[in-house]
Amino acid sequence: MGLEHPHETSDGDQIVGFKDNYEYTIMSYNESKLNPGVFPRTPQILDVAAIQYLYGVNNNTRSGDDIYSWEDNENFMQTIWDTGGNDTISAAKQSNEVTIDLAAGYANIGLNNKTYKPARSNLQIPVNVIIENIKGGQGDDTLIGNNIDNRLEGNGGNDTLEGNGGNDFIDGGEGEDTAIFSDAPQNYDYEVIDNNQIKIIHARGSESVQTDILINIENLNFLDTNLTVHTLTAQKFYQATNQQGKVADLLKHNSGSIFQQIIDFLVTYLVRLMVHLAVLIVVLVH
C-alpha cells in the first residue's frame, strides 16, 4: 500500500502517542489498549485517510445495499469503507449489549480476545461514510443515528435509541425501550397513531422540521423531561376530538397533571350521564 510504520522517522511524519496502535493503523507494532489481543482485519481509520491522500478516494467500493454483521461475541477490529446504497450495521446475532453510534463513527460490538470483556470502539466509520440503518441484538443496546433518515431497530433487551436528526423510524422491539430527543418538549408535536405507534414532530426550535415514527417504545426522554408512552395514549383518550397536540401541553411541566385531567374528564362524563338517566326516568314515569 506504500504506507510506513507509524514509528518510522525518515521523513519526519511519525505517529506518536496513543494513536500508535492497531485501533488506528494496521501498520503499528502495538496492540490496541481498548481491545488487546485483537488484530485488525482491514486497514484502519488512519490507513484509509493515508491511502486516500496518496491515491485518491475509491468511490466504487461497496456501492450497493450492504449488511455488516458478526457472530455472537466475535473478536474483531474493523474499519468500514462504503460508498453508497442503503446500508445496515447489524448486531442481531449479539447476546451482549452493544453501542453503535453512526454520528460519532464507532461501535462496540463483541468481545476482545485477551480479557473477554466487551469490545470498545472496535468498529470505526470514517466521516465520509454514510450508514443508514442499525439493528441491535438481545442485550440492552445503545443505538444512535446520524443526520440523515435512519431506521433503528432495538430487537431484544431494554434499549436506548436516538435518531439524532433526519426523519427516522425507531422500533424498540422487545423489552422496555427508550427514545431520546435532544430538545425541550415544547418544541415537539405528537400524534398517537395507535397504542403501539407514535409520530413525534420536531416542529419548533433550532433544528428544521423533522418527523420520527416510533413503534414498540415505552419511554420518551426529552431535554429536561421524561415521560412514558402510556401518558401520550392517555392524552389521546382525553382529547378524543383532537389527536394531535403539543408535548408541552401534555406535560404542563408536571407529568402527574395528565392523570388529574383524566379523572376530571371521567367525573364530568359520569355526572352528565346521571343527569341524562334522571331525565329519561322522569319521562318514562310520566
What does this structure look like?
With 286 residues, the chain is of the alpha/beta class. The protein folds into two domains: 62-240, Serralysin-like metalloprotease, C-terminal (Alkaline Protease, subunit P, domain 1, 2 Solenoid); 252-284. It has four helices and 18 strands. It has helices at residues 45-55, 229-238, 247-251, 257-285; strands spanning 67-69, 78-79, 88-90, 99-101, 106-108, 123-124, 133-135, 142-144, 151-153, 160-162, 169-171, 178-180, 188-194, 197-202, 210-215, 219-221, 226-228, 244-246. The strands form two sheets. Strands 1-3-7-9-11-15-14-13-18 form a nine-stranded mixed sheet. The radius of gyration is 26 Å and the shape is elongated. The termini are far apart.
Q: What are the main properties of this structure?
A:
286 residues, alpha/beta, Alkaline Protease, subunit P, domain 1, nine-stranded mixed β-sheet, 18 strands, 19% helix, 22% strand
Layout of secondary structure:
Layout: H1 45-55, E1 67-69, E2 78-79, E3 88-90, E4 99-101, E5 106-108, E6 123-124, E7 133-135, E8 142-144, E9 151-153, E10 160-162, E11 169-171, E12 178-180, E13 188-194, E14 197-202, E15 210-215, E16 219-221, E17 226-228, H2 229-238, E18 244-246, H3 247-251, H4 257-285
Helix content: 10-25%
Total of domains? 2
Please, what is the average pLDDT? 84
The poorly predicted ranges are 237-244, 252-258
Cofactor: Ca(2+)
GO molecular function: calcium ion binding; metallopeptidase activity
Transmembrane segments: 265-285
Protein name: Peptidase M10A and M12B, matrixin and adamalysin
